[in-house]
Every structure is written in structure tokens, then in C-alpha cells.
Write a structure and sequence with these properties.
CATH class of the largest domain: Alpha Beta
CATH topology of the largest domain: formyl-coa transferase, domain 3
Number of domains: 3
Number of helices: 20
CATH superfamily of the largest domain: MutL, C-terminal domain, dimerisation subdomain
């Protein structure tokens, strides 16, 4: 006698329920997806207890007739895969949220379920009652068009599963997250969510824009800005891929990755490619341990994404993931650049209408033959770059950089914190719309900003903003291969372990491009002949070991060892240089030095966050200041 037996339909449904129905939130998700696929304009979700006592979903969709009400309880019975004769073709372009035909029978096998449904063509609807997989009653009944599904005593026949449910608060949190996801994915859809007869969420259909829903769901004040995301119009990768969404500003980020919601063709998903691309696009604007918050939507042809890879349909596979990644990075970077422009407009107002003059132009505009200015601000690296004094890379091997010698002869590298070597500096150096007031704790600049008819109190972190300005300039110089080097009067000799020497040889081209000239001296000895000018005040061996640590991979076996993209590695190196070269906390600035720093802010392409993601500027409106002192 054969030992292999075919499982009963009821047992197969219970096994499927173990994959599809994990907790009450899974039931809400499946029922919501059915309602949305049915074309509902308004959905009502009612919960009692933690959801295991009662889940009730009411929609005004197309409804089901009597035959469909019975068929929906059959495993793998679905109306959403089309009529193509080729089964593989039916799975190639899934446009609906549900398609597997497992959810309803799986829920019915582990709960007491009641289904009431009517189409607009029928005078009476159908009511069906199921008790743990067994139909107990079917009859006609009067009801509204649409479908009502009640799920009671979830996992009542599986006490072990019910035992592993979390606290009521946790289960309700997961249910609320599911509802918020579909409120965002369908901003035209009205959804009402009640718990124990208390309304928690209430969104009217066709009454709100996506932006309004994002602010409402994230609990943000409507006056706080969102960063809109749209794929660049000139994208040549794939014209049929559209990316849009909204991000909360970086200072409103969370320590929880779940605060970022991803959607593909209206389906809420968890996808590493999208998450990684978003993080790369926001590189330099988020603090370590923080994650972006907001929503990101991708609309892509259905045949270019596979949604049939997970029982709960939470995971997907893109046909061309590298294109999706590149599109997201580009869209996010473009959105952040626009955000920088808007922030600059708020601070500097109408001054942006005209191209701002550099500090040198302001000083010499009255006298064409005037000698170069004699001041320099804290190792600011713009001077050599603007004069196009190039450092030509020499690759590879045991060579010295003659170009580096020529440039370094024109550069003077001061200790960080060495302010102006004072020459004559005009008082009109600072932007007219941003007036410095003073300095607090030798760290924060207080300024008054005027924008249209509004006034703001502006607080600026002097170290963080200068670090960002230096980082942007260094990045521009590196990309143009114009990083200035400072030759050492006495070259520094040191020994490197084999692992470090291997990394040095492997990345010699990029290291030389950074302005660091290192040559072999025999055996394990190396000689440092030149260092990046911006950090020339540091010990040469400290500069070399710091750069090598950033280039390390798993073969170097250090704490910093982790796989990163080349762009991320170089950004880390340049941000470290900028941090070491920037003015420090505790340094007192004169009025003219404050004005020069503000002028550099106005000319920089990015300034709102330091390269490590810390916010640089904080604005307080006049209304907020008055409120502190109870003035109306």
C-alpha cells in the first residue's frame, strides 16, 4: 500500500494559512486588497480587541453573485489572472493586487467567517457562513452593493498559533501600518478605520492629494516642507518607468527603517534594491543610524516585474534591477538638489536672482589691477580650483608629481582655525537678506533672515556648514582631477604591513588623485612626498593611514572593513578631510569672518547638512519667537 497520500482540502488550506495568514494584520491586508481590486471607492475596517476577536471589512465595490461567493472559498480560485490560454502568459503581467486565490480559503480555515455580497445587477445579495473551513449556512439576504466580510475568533482552532500573537498594542500597530500603506497607495480611496468603535483614521474619497495624505499619516505639521521626487525628464534608461513620491526633510528622519514606504504599481513591498538606491541618493544628508521617511512609488510595465515570489506578495523581483536602482538614485539626488535651492531661496531670498559675486570679485571690482586679496578663510579650497591650477595625475608606480610641486608652490596651508590674514574687506560681503547678529558658545551663528515680508531667526552650526562647503569643493576638485597637493619639506618615511601595502598598490590611482604622493623606498618602507593641501596641517602618516582605512575591504580585517561602493568610499574620505580642515567648535569669529562664511554658504551648491548628515541650519519664524514670549 502506498505511503504517499493526497492532503485533504481543509488541511491544505490550513498549511497555506501558515504562510499567508501570519497575524490579524495579514487578514486585513488580504481583505483590503480584494476590496481595492473590486473597484471600491470607500472601505470601512472595524477591529475589536487585537483583531483576533473581530475583523470586519465593508466595501462598495462590484460585489459577488451567489456562485462567486461559493467559489471564492475554493483554493486557487481567482478572477484576476485573465483568460489567456497559456498559463505562463497569465503570470507575466499581473496588474491586480491579489491573484493567488489562497487568501479567502486560508482565512476561512482558521476562523469563523461571514461573507455578505451583492452586485448591482442582483436584487438580493448572498450571505455565507463558514466555521473553520466548513460551510454552515448559505442564503439570500438584503444588503447594499459591495461586500462585507467578518472574521471572528481568528486561530480559534489553532491555540498554538494564537498563543504566539503579540500584545494588543503591537497587533493594532501592524494593522494600522497596513491601512496607512493602502491609504498612500490609493490617495483617491476613502478609508475609515475604527478600533472598539473608536475612529482612528478617516480619509474621505477624492478629498485629498497624496502630499496631504503623507503629511497626515506621518503626523507632520502642514507647514513643514516635503521633498517631492520625480524621475528626471531626460532619463534615457527606460521611458516607461516612472518614479515619484515625497520625502520628509532629512532632519525629520527616524531611527526605524519602517518609516519609509515603497510601492511598485500600487503594491506595498519590501525591496533591498529600492532601499539601497534611496540611501545612496541621500548619501551625505542622513546621520548614521537614521533612515529616510516618506513614500516612494515606482510605476513600471507589469511584465517587467515578478510579484509571484512570496506567499504574502511582499517581495518582488525586477527584470532589470540595475536600471531601477540608477533611476531612483538619480531621482532622489535631483529632488535633494531642488530642496537645497529652495532652502537657499528661503535664506537668501532675492539675492539668488543675480549670480552672486565671489569674495575676490567684490574686493577687486573697483580696480582691475588690484593685487590678489591677502586673506584666506580656514583652508578654504576654492582659490586653487577657481584659478584652474591643475594637478595632473601620474599613474602608476614610483613617480613624483611635478604638477603637484607647481601647485603647492602657490598654496599656503594654514592651521585650521587660522582666520583671515587681514587685508581690506568690504562690509557688504555678507548677503543682504541674511544679517549676522552674533555668536553663541563660539559655535552657533545667530542671524536675521528676511524673505519677502517674513523674518526669521536663523541659527547656523559654524563647523558643520564650513565642513559641508569644503566637502562640496573637494568633491568638485576630485572629479575634475584638480586636488591640490602640498609638498613636504622633509618627506616622511614609514613602514607598512603587507595588507596596507597591498591596498595602497591596488588603489594607487585614486590615492594620487586625492593629492597624496607615496612611493616605495625598498622592502616594507614607503616615503610620503606630498599630502592633500587642505589637510597639510596633519601628520603625514595620519593622513595615509586614515585614507587606507577608508579603502579597506574584508581582506584588511579592520573594524572599518565593510563592502561599500567606490563613490561611498571616496565621499567618506573627502568628508573626513573636510571635517579636519573646517573651523572648529569653540573658535570665536569676527563680524567679517561671519560674513565671509555666510557668503560661502550662498555660493555653495549644498549647505543644509554636513557630510555626516547633521543639520546645519535651523529657522525660527517671527511668529514662533513671539509665541515664546506670549506676544500676539
Amino acid at each position: 500500500m502506498s505511503r504517499i497520500r493526497i492532503l485533504s482540502e481543509h488541511l491544505a488550506n490550513q498549511i497555506a494559512a501558515g504562510e499567508v495568514i501570519e497575524r490579524p494584520a495579514s487578514v486585513v491586508k488580504e481583505l483590503l486588497e480584494n476590496s481595492i481590486d473590486a473597484g471600491a471607492e470607500h472601505i470601512q475596517v472595524e477591529i475589536e480587541g487585537s483583531g483576533s476577536r473581530l475583523i470586519k471589512v465593508i466595501d462598495d465595490g462590484m460585489g459577488m453573485d451567489g456562485d462567486d461567493v461559493l467559489l471564492c472559498l475554493e483554493r486557487h480560485a481567482t478572477s484576476k489572472l485573465g483568460d489567456c490560454a497559456d498559463d505562463s502568459c497569465r503570470l507575466m503581467a499581473i496588474s491586480s493586487l491579489g491573484f493567488r486565490g489562497e487568501a479567502i480559503p486560508s482565512i476561512a480555515s482558521v476562523a469563523k467567517m461571514t461573507i455578505i455580497s451583492r452586485t448591482d445587477k442582483d436584487l438580493l445579495g448572498t450571505k455565507l457562513e463558514v466555521r473553520y473551513g466548513k460551510i454552515t449556512r448559505v442564503h439570500e439576504t438584503g444588503c447594499n452593493k459591495g461586500t462585507v466580510i467578518e472574521v471572528r475568533d481568528l486561530f480559534g482552532n489553532m491555540p498554538a498559533r494564537k498563543k504566539f500573537l503579540k500584545s494588543t498594542r503591537t497587533e493594532l500597530f501592524h494593522i494600522e501600518e497596513i491601512i496607512k500603506n493602502y491609504c498612500l497607495a490609493n490617495p483617491h480611496l476613502g478609508i475609515t478605520y475604527t478600533v472598539n468603535n473608536k475612529t482612528i483614521l478617516d480619509f474621505a474619497s477624492e478629498a485629498e492629494t497624496l502630499e496631504e495624505r503623507v503629511k497626515k499619516i506621518y503626523g507632520r505639521n502642514s507647514s513643514l516642507p516635503l521633498i517631492p521626487i520625480m524621475a528626471p525628464d531626460d532619463s534615457s534608461d527606460q521611458s516607461d518607468i516612472m518614479i515619484k513620491g515625497f520625502l520628509l526633510s532629512p532632519e525629520q528622519s527616524f531611527a526605524m527603517s519602517s518609516r519609509m514606504r515603497f510601492f511598485v504599481n500600487g503594491r506595498a513591498v519590501k525591496d533591498r534594491i529600492m532601499a539601497h538606491a534611496l540611501a545612496e541618493g541621500l548619501s551625505g544628508y542622513l546621520m548614521k543610524g537614521r533612515s529616510a521617511s516618506g513614500v516612494l512609488f515606482i510605476t513600471i510595465p507589469y511584465d517587467k516585474v515578478d510579484v509571484n515570489v512570496h506567499p504574502a506578495k511582499l517581495e518582488i523581483r525586477f527584470q532589470q534591477p540595475e536600471i531601477i536602482h540608477r533611476q531612483i538614485v538619480s531621482a532622489v539626488q535631483s529632488a535633494v538638489a531642488d530642496y537645497q535651492t529652495q532652502s537657499k531661496q528661503t535664506l537668501f531670498g532675492s539675492n539668488l536672482n543675480n549670480k552672486p559675486l565671489s569674495a575676490e570679485q567684490i574686493i577687486t571690482e573697483d580696480n582691475e589691477a588690484a593685487p590678489p586679496p591677502k586673506y584666506k578663510l580656514w583652508n578654504t579650497v576654492t582659490a586653487a580650483f577657481e584659478k584652474e591650477e591643475r594637478v595632473e595625475p601620474i599613474f602608476p608606480g614610483k613617480t613624483t608629481s611635478s604638477s603637484s610641486q607647481e601647485v603647492s608652490g602657490t598654496l599656503s596651508t594654514a592651521e585650521p582655525g587660522s582666520p583671515f590674514e587681514h587685508g581690506e574687506i568690504p562690509e557688504s560681503l555678507a548677503p543682504e537678506s541674511l544679517r549676522p547678529i552674533g555668536q553663541l558658545m563660539d559655535l552657533y551663528l545667530f542671524c536675521e533672515a528676511r524673505h519677502d515680508d517674513s523674518r526669521y531667526l536663523v541659527v547656523i552650526d559654524q563647523h558643520a556648514v564650513h565642513e559641508r562647503i569644503l566637502f562640496e569643493n573637494l568633491k568638485k576638485q576630485f572629479e575634475a582631477r584638480q586636488m591640490a597637493s602640498q609638498n613636504l619639506l622633509f618627506p616622511k618615511m614609514l613602514e607598512l604591513p603587507p595588507e596596507a601595502a597591498e591596498i595602497l598598490e591596488k588603489n594607487r590611482e585614486k590615492i594620487l588623485q586625492l593629492g597624496l604622493v607615496v612611493e616605495e623606498f625598498g622592502g616594507d618602507s614607503y616615503i610620503i612626498k606630498a599630502v592633500p593641501a587642505v589637510v597639510s596641517h596633519l601628520a603625514p602618516e595620519e593622513i595615509l593611514t586614515g585614507i587606507l582605512a577608508q579603502f579597506t575591504g574584508t581582506e584588511y580585517n579592520l573594524a572599518e572593513s565593510r563592502k561599500r561602493s567606490d563613490a561611498t568610499r571616496l565621499d567618506d574620505i573627502l568628508s573626513s578631510m573636510a571635517c579636519k580642515a573646517a573651523i572648529k567648535a569653540g573658535q570665536n569669529l569676527s563680524d567679517l569672518e561671519m560674513q565671509q562664511l555666510l557668503k560661502l554658504m550662498q555660493e555653495s551648491r549644498a549647505f543644509t547638512h554636513c557630510p555626516h548628515g547633521r543639520p546645519v541650519v535651523q529657522l525660527f519664524s517671527a511668529a514662533e519667537v513671539k509665541k515664546w514670549f506670549h506676544r500676539t
